Amino acid sequence: MDMVSMGLLAAMGALATIAGTSEDLESDVGSQSNPNSQVQLAAQVGHTHRIYNKAISGEPPSNALYAALAAVTASVLMSDAYGMNAFFSIAVGSLVAAVFNGILSMTSYMGRNTSQARFNQYVYLDVLRSHTTTIMAHAYITAFCVVAISYIMTAPWLPIQHPFPLPVIAFTWGIALGAIGSSTGDVHYGAEREFQQYPFGAGLNAANSGDIVTKGEAGLRSSIDNAWFCAKFGGPVTGLAFGLIVFLDNWRTTIFDPATQGWYAIATGVLIVVLLNVYNRILEVRSKKRYGPYPEYVGDIKA
Amino acid sequence: MSVAAGGGESKIDKTKLTMYGLGGGILGIYLAHVLNMITGTGYFSFLAGLGAIAAIVMGADAVRRVCAYGIGTGVPSIGMMAMGMGLVAAMFGLAVAGVAGPIIGIAIAMGFGYFVGMLANKIIKMNIPVMEEVLMSLGGAGAVVIIALSVVISGQIGYQDMLNDVVFTGFIAIVFIAGALAILQPFNANLGPDETQDRTLVHAISTGGLAMFAAGIGSLITVGVGGAVLTMLIAAAIWLKAFLWYFKLVKRDSAGVVGTGLLAEGGL
Amino acid sequence: MSTFDASTLIYVIQIVIGGLLVGIGVHFVPVGGAPAAMAQATGVGTGTVQLATGSGLTGLISAGLMMSVTDNILLIVLSGAVGAMIMMDVTMIVGNWVYIYGIGVPPVAAKVDYDPITKDPQPPYISPGTVGHGVPTVSYVSGTIGGLLGGAGGSLIYYALMNINGVSGLSAFFAIGIFVVNAVIASYNIQGTIEGFHDPKFKRIPRAIQACFIATLIIGIFAVLIHGGA
C-alpha cells in the first residue's frame, strides 16, 4: 500500500461514479430495459407517446459492447504500430462506441415503433434528431470512464497489473455496470417518473399498467424531460452504487497485499457484507415505521 | 423482460436460411483462409466477415422463432447462451483439428444446442416445441460468427495464430459481444405485433455490418493496414446499404413516419 | 489436445461443481423482472441472468487478480465469492434506497405472510394492486447467498481452466460462457422471477441441478481438452 496506489484507487472510484451516473441517464433518455416494457405497453392500451423507445437488448450486453469496442480501439491505437497517447486513444475509442450506440438506438426506435403500427404509433423523426445525440453523449462518457478504469487496472507501468487483457476487463466491467444500472436507477425512472400522475408512496397498481405520462408540464412529455428528473436522484445513486463496488473491490486488495495478506482482504470483504446486511435491516425497519401500513389493507394480519 | 408479443408469418423458409447461413459462413471462412495463404497477405479477410453476416441473419431468424413463445427470460439471455456454447465448441474444433477445425467446431456447437434444448424441454419441462431445433441453429450461428470474426482478425485458421491475435490481445471480447448483439438485436429492436420477417432480417444484415466493422478495427494491428481498411470499408458499405433498405421498410410498415407532430389517436 | 489423465478428471469435476454452484446460486438471487422495476413485484428490478452474470463476473475479476499472485484454491474461490457478494449487496442496498426514498414504498415480500428471518408481518405493507416491492431482509440474505455461490462457482471454473491452458483471457471467456449457460438453464427453471429461498418456486431446484450437471459435464469435457497453445 502506497500513495500512488491509493491515489489510483480514488481515481477509479471517481471514474466509476461518473460512469454509473451517465449509464443510468443514458438508459433514461433512451428508455431502455425493464421500464421500457411499460412504454411498449402504453401504445397497446391506447396511449401513443413521444418517448424514445430504445431497446438495445438489455443493459449488460449493450454496455459490454460499448466498453469492449472502446477498449479494442484504444488498445489498437496504443499499440506499437500507432503509439498514440493513452488518454487520446481512449477518447477516440469512446467516440467509436458512441457512434455504434447512436446507430443501434436509431434503428431500435424506428423498429419498435413500426412494429406497433396497428396502434397508430408514429415514428417521429424530430425525436430521433433531438434525442439521439444526447444518448450518444452519455454513452461516450460511460465508455470513456469504464475503459479508463480498465486501463488503470491493466497498464504495465501502473501497480495493479491485472492478468486479463484490457478489452476483457472492460467487457466484464461493462456487464457489471449494465446489471447495476438496470437494477437501481431504472427503478426510479420506471416506478416514479413514468407514472408521476399517481400519488407518491405506492408501487404501480397492475390495473394502471401502460398508463404512462405522455403529456408533460408544457407540451408533450419527451425523454429528455425524463432524464432531467432522474438526474436528481436515480442517476447519482447508480453512480454511487458502481463507485462503491469498484472502490470496495479494489480497496481490499490495495491495503492488503494479495500475495501475502490475502486472508485479511477476504475477512474485510466478509465484514463489509455483514455490515451491509445489518444496514438493510435498519433501513427496512425505519421505512416501515415512517410510512406505516396501507389503509386499504383489509386482512387479519396486524402490522 | 418477458414480452410475449409474437411477430408476423415467415415468408422465407427456415431451412433455406439455415443452409445459406451455415454454407455462406463456412464458405467465407475457408475462402478467406485459402486466399490469404496463397497470396501471403491479409487482403481477403473480409470474405470471412461476409460469412459472419450470413450466419448472423440465420441466427436472427432462429431468435425470432423461439421468442414468439414467450420463454420468460428475455431475448438477450438466449443470445449470450448461444455465443457461450459456440465459443467453447469453436475453440475446441480449432484446437484439435487444425484446418478442419471450423467444421468440427460448428458441428459440436449445433450438438450442444440441440442437447441444451433437450434438457430444457425434458428436465426443466418447458415444453416449447421448437426449442431443440432453434437452439441447434443458434449454437451453429454462434460458432460460425465467432470463428468468422476471429478469422477476420487473424487472417488464417491456425490455432496458434488465433491465440496470438485474438485471445492474447483480448479482442475475443469484441468478437463475442458484437456477434451476440448482432444476432439478438434485430428481433429485440423490432419487437411488436406488426413485426415482419423481412424487416428483421434486413436489420440483421445491418448489425452484421457493424460487427464486421468492429472486428475490422481489431484487425488493424493483426492483419495489416491494407486488409483491415478493406474490411472496414466493405463493412461500412454493407451497413449503409442495409440501413437505407431498412429505412425504406420502416416507411412501408409503420403507421406514419412524420417529421414532427402531436400524438395520434390510439388505433385498435 | 491435452492428455486425459487423472488430473484432467479432477479439473472436470471442479468445472462441474462450479457450474452447479452457479445454477443453484441463481435460485437464491431475488429478481422481480420487469414488474419489479415498476415496484410491482418483490426483488431487484432486472433480469435473472443479467444480475447473476454481473455479480459472477465481478467475482471473476477479483479471482483473476488473486490467481496471478497465488495458487491457493481456497483463497481464489473465496475472493471471487466475496467480490460477487459485495456487488450483489451494494446493488440491493442502492435498489432499496430508490424504493424507499425515491418511490416511497417499504421493502416487503408477497409470497409469505411473515418474513422467515425477522418474523415481521408483510401483507399490511404491500401497495394495493402489486405483488410486493423492494428487497426485504429475507430476500437480501438470500441474495447474499446467491452472490456467494455464483461468485464461487465462476471462480472455480476459471481456476480449473487456468490450470489446464494457462491463458487468462481464454479461461475467463470460457468461464463466462459456461456461467451463462448454467444461469440461463436455471432462469428457465424459475421462469424469470423469484423472491428468494422462501419462494415456493425454490422447491424446483432439483430439476435445475440435474440439467446444469449434465450440461456442464458435457461442455466441461470439451473445455478441458483445449490446450493453451505452444
From TrEMBL, chain C:
* EC numbers on record: 7.2.1.4
User: How is this protein positioned relative to the membrane?
Assistant: Multi-pass membrane protein
Fill in the subunit field for this protein. The complex is composed of 8 subunits; MtrA, MtrB, MtrC, MtrD, MtrE, MtrF, MtrG and MtrH.
Q: Where in the cell is it found?
A: Cell membrane
Could you tell me the keywords of this UniProt record?
Cell membrane, Membrane, Methanogenesis, Methyltransferase, One-carbon metabolism, Transferase, Translocase, Transmembrane, Transmembrane helix
List this protein's GO terms for biological process: methylation
* Pathway, per record: One-carbon metabolism; methanogenesis from CO(2); methyl-coenzyme M from 5,10-methylene-5,6,7,8-tetrahydromethanopterin: step 2/2
NCBIfam families given for it? mtrD
* Name recorded for this polypeptide: Tetrahydromethanopterin S-methyltransferase subunit D
Q: What does this protein do?
A: Part of a complex that catalyzes the formation of methyl-coenzyme M and tetrahydromethanopterin from coenzyme M and methyl-tetrahydromethanopterin. This is an energy-conserving, sodium-ion translocating step.
Entry's transmembrane regions: 9-29, 49-66, 73-99, 140-161, 168-188, 208-226
**Primary location:** membrane
Per the record, the gene is: mtrD
Q: Which GO terms describe its molecular function?
A: methyltransferase activity
Q: What class of enzyme is it?
A: translocase
